[in-house]
Amino acid sequence: MQSVRPSLAVLKRAARALAAPIMAAAILVPAAGRAAEAEPVKLGYAKCAHCTPLSLTPQYATGVKLSTISFNTGNDVLTALLSKSIDVAQVTYLHYATALDKGFKVVAISGQINGGSQIVVADSLPVQPGDWDGLKKLVMQYKKDGKPFRVAASRGNAQDIHMRGAFLTHGIDINKDVQFVNIPNPSDHVQALRRGEVELITSVEPFATQIREVKAAKFFAFPYDQAAGKLTNLMVTRPDVIESNPQGVLETVRAIVKVDELMASNKPLFIDTVHKVTGLDKTIATGAVNNLEPDYKMYRSSAVAIAKMMHDLKYVNSDVSGAVQKNLDYSFLEKVTGKPKSQLGY
């Protein structure tokens, strides 16, 4: 039987028919890839030793274009987040509870670094380090003499709540026994002490160590014996950011975890990062790092205790402990670390 060969024209038509779906698929693949890419993320952080490692997150971010912006205080960072100038913010557990109390929609997605608080007192005060009974006696003497015993912090930061909680623990009423002075920018703490404007300041690293190094005041205590413990920094975002850019949030958390692990394992790098970002010398940076603990976990029970303490101290108008728990989103940490939330502070 004689075979029938297809004509050249038929072969060309068949080739075109086969090629069409392949070309269409090739066109669709990049489009799908683009759709899967994360939108850029802007991360804001405050100018403190805790926060400086966040300046490294862009170089350790994968799958997202991450940029960082530094602000003077945590309050400024929170304002930027709420005004949608940034997408992810480094704040404190205090800011988190305060924002929820005011009805703002914020979601916590990871921890960052804890510790970093020091109580320092004027050199002239006759109190020894850790002598809370002696401090209380002095405060009451000031009160009896009709003189204000002035204590300062940057209202709204972790050091403020650490101080208030520690005073409460040791029987000093910050609303009745002392006069609170708000110094918003921690870099101004040293001059307030030098000018004799306050008797005591609870400051944040590296400024607390700087105060001691330049002999503007002497060490009194680490204010960690209260409900907040050492809890300090928390990374938060808005629900609309999670909804519109979940991959970007995930990759941001991944970068935060990477940098935290790096800081924990490489102390010289941590010291160098604080030195470079703040401009303070390495002696001060070293002292600051000794009072800091990189930790990306979110501690639910302690966060609730902070919220309750803030209500007891009349720092917030309502008990937001329920909202504090509800808005801790562990899903990103779980995906990044491969651990269940029970191992991440829940």
Sum up the structure in keywords.
16% strand, disordered N terminus, globular, 6-stranded mixed sheet, D-Maltodextrin-Binding Protein, domain 2, alpha/beta, 5-stranded mixed sheet, 346 residues, 2 domains, single chain
Q: Can you describe what's shown?
A:
This is ABC-type nitrate/sulfonate/bicarbonate transport system substrate-binding protein. Keywords: Signal. Residues 1-19 form the signal peptide. With 346 residues, the protein is an alpha/beta fold. The protein has 15 helices and 11 strands. The chain has 2 domains: 41-115 and 230-343, Periplasmic binding protein-like II (D-Maltodextrin-Binding Protein, domain 2), CATH 3.40.190; 117-221, D-Maltodextrin-Binding Protein, domain 2. The strands form 2 sheets. Strands 2-1-3-10-4-11 form a 6-stranded mixed sheet, with helices on both faces. α6 (158-169) links the parallel β6 (150-153) and β7 (179-182). The N and C termini lie far apart (80 Å).
